[in-house]
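Please produce the structure of this protein holding 2'-deoxyadenosine-5'-diphosphate.
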Amino acid sequence: MSEATLVLIKPDGVRRNLIGEIISRCEAKGYTVAALKKISPSRDLLAKHYAEHEGKSFYEPLMEFMLSGDIVAIRLEGNRVIEGFRVIAGATDPTVAAPGTIRGDLSRDWGTKVVQNLVHGSDSLESAERELALWF
Ligand code: DAT
Ligand code: MG
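Below is the modeled complex.
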């Protein structure tokens, strides 16, 4: 049976008109966009989404950044898509993310308090199920 993950195109990706580029990379890899919506999430939804990071130094800047503009939420499907999307997304820090990845090719350090790295991808089966239920 096929797997599903939550992909978010964060406000920097939407502002920079990279929605098509990012979705193209997911489709070119062979994954299926099963559901997609552009939304302006509430603080409550984001707090649930990022509950694991509450209390960390970058938590407030992260929340402010995620509230700074529209987000595109995608249910992406395919065998091993949770792991596979994180590979094509690249490392969290865009400065060192490998060339060929979304973050490595399209993002960089802008000197902000929180890393702006274009995309979110669920990091485990449990996270994917929890996050998909929050956003869809
Ligand atoms: P990822 O998005 O790669 O799963 P994460 O879940 O650890 O990374 O963190 C969520 C987001 O928070 C991440 O995309 C960017 C930001 N972030 C993480 N660690 C950070 C740090 N040490 N300094 C600044 N921002 C950070
Ligand atoms: Mg994460």
